[in-house]
């Protein structure tokens, strides 16, 4: 009887999802229409983003990538799905977000509704205000100086793993500005076990999150997820016990979340604080360090760009090329430097697979000159990688061409509205301005101080290592680095 029941249930689900489901008319692979389990291998190997890109090339702008999930590759869908009004304002976060935490426990990132997200974001806004960012400059300068000193030391010992060095910087800055403590990886000149634990935990969560009950089960068993969350608890305990200490900044991000900087707008419970810990650790370290790694990778393959960058910096910092450190000048006048960063964010999107929302009403999705209506309870997202590498949005989309951001009128096709490396609208990345501050300073000083080369074998190995773990992740990037002689 049990076997008959299971066979009948399987047949019923299959029939419904293929022939009767409201999304049955939307094209997509058969396996994806049937079950989210089909994504487990891709999520573990980090190939989801490339697979969805291939689906869009085969099926079009709107693809069914799950039993009730569709992906959209039309940039016009950004406002449709993530905007502040219309059906978008009534959307809730998708299952990816609910699967990464315990039921009814949320970080800023995975608050289900836009209204609750906006209320909670106010404490975060204070931590990333213009005034607060100004107090972080000294930390960024000091860590950048320590990083470049370590790179100079390592340069005489053979090839340097630039990706690892950038991780040191990102992790230490995140620690100081987020928790008021340094993890000491820049000073030690080696990757700590904490960094490895974070990377493995994020990979495990991303793999299992599309089958949410699996991630919930593994929280209570020995697993990378359980170890990662245990470490988050330890970091949070340390921060709470060191209330009011100001070793690195007058007010770190958790000073605002814990109400140490005046009235707390929304009191958070312990589990919510741990979720915000996770958000701070992942978003505050991985994305920035990976973006800088990609910029340096592309620069190593285009020496002419490096020469032009140095000319720009020499003009902006006459007599002080060795240490360009004025954040405002780098932001407002270093046009080629900013173009190099934007182009790396386009070509190597930090979050390549997009951000899920679940509709609560009917939604009309754009698909070129046509539209497709999806019902309530549909999981929708825009696919960042596909939009960034679509020749309808950017000429020669597979090439690293920073000048497209300086002289867009010279490009046959240039659609800056398709660029969405930090999300879109009011739910976009709150730390974007801080990330740019870090990237501009480190990259400017790196280019000013070092010559870099990457061998073809190392370049191929690096590109082959790039994977989608919700945030993009990579393997080592080994380079020959030499201090500049002039």
TrEMBL record:
Domain of life: Eukaryota
GO terms of molecular function: heme binding; iron ion binding; monooxygenase activity; oxidoreductase activity, acting on paired donors, with incorporation or reduction of molecular oxygen
Protein keywords: Heme, Iron, Metal-binding, Monooxygenase, Oxidoreductase, Signal
Signal peptide positions (record): 1-15
Cofactor(s) named in the record: heme
SUPFAM superfamilies registered for this protein in UniProt: Cytochrome P450 (SSF48264)
Keyword Heme: yes
Residues the entry annotates as binding heme: 429
Xref: PANTHER family: CYTOCHROME P450 (PTHR24305), P450, PUTATIVE (EUROFUNG)-RELATED (PTHR24305:SF187)
Similarity annotation: Belongs to the cytochrome P450 family.
Designated name of the protein: Cytochrome P450
Lineage: Eukaryota, Fungi, Dikarya, Ascomycota, Pezizomycotina
């Amino acid at each position: 009887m049990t076997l008959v029941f299971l066979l009948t249930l399987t047949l019923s689900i299959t029939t419904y999802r293929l022939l009767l489901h409201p999304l049955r008319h939307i094209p997509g692979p058969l396996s994806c229409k049937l079950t989210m389990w089909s994504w487990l291998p891709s999520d573990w190997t980090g190939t989801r983003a490339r697979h969805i890109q291939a689906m869009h090339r085969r099926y079009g702008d709107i693809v069914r990538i799950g039993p009730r999930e569709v992906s959209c590759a039309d940039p016009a869908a950004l406002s449709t799905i993530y905007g502040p009004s219309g059906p978008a304002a009534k959307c809730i976060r998708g299952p990816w977000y609910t699967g990464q935490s315990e039921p009814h426990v949320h970080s800023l990132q995975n608050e289900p509704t836009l209204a609750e997200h906006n209320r909670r974001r106010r404490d975060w806004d204070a931590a990333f205000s213009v005034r607060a960012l100004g107090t972080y400059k000294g930390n960024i300068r000091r860590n950048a100086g320590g990083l470049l000193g370590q790179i100079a030391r390592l340069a005489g010992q053979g090839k340097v793993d630039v990706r690892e060095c950038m991780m040191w910087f990102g992790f230490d800055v995140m620690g100081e500005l987020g928790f008021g403590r340094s993890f000491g990886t820049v000073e030690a000149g080696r990757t700590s076990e904490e960094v490895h634990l974070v990377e493995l935990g994020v990979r495990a969560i991303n793999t299992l999150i599309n089958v949410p009950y699996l991630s919930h089960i593994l929280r209570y068993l020995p697993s990378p997820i359980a170890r990662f969350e245990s470490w988050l608890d330890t970091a949070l305990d340390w921060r709470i016990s060191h209330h009011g200490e100001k070793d690195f900044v007058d007010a770190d991000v958790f000073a605002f979340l814990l109400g140490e900087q005046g009235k707390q707008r929304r009191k958070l419970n312990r589990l919510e604080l741990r979720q915000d810990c996770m958000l701070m650790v992942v978003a505050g370290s991985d994305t920035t360090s990976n973006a800088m790694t990609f910029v340096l990778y592309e620069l190593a393959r285009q020496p002419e760009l490096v020469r032009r960058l140095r000319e720009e910096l020499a003009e902006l910092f006459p007599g002080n090329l060795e240490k360009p450190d004025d954040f405002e000048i780098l932001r407002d006048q270093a046009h080629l430097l900013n173009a190099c960063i934007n182009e790396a964010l386009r070509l190597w999107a930090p979050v390549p697979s997009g951000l899920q929302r679940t509709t609560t009403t009917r939604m009309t999705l754009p698909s070129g000159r046509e539209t497709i209506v999806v019902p309530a309870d549909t999981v929708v997202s825009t696919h960042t990688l596909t939009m960034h590498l679509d020749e309808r949005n950017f000429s020669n989309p597979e090439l690293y061409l920073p000048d497209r951001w300086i002289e867009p009128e010279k490009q046959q096709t240039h659609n800056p509205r398709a660029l969405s490396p930090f999300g879109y609208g009011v739910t976009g990345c709150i730390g974007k301005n801080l990330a740019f501050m870090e990237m501009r300073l480190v990259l400017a000083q790196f280019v000013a101080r070092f010559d870099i080369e990457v061998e073809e074998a190392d370049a191929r190995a690096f590109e082959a290592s790039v994977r989608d773990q919700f945030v993009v992740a990579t393997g080592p990037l080994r380079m020959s680095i030499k201090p500049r002689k002039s």
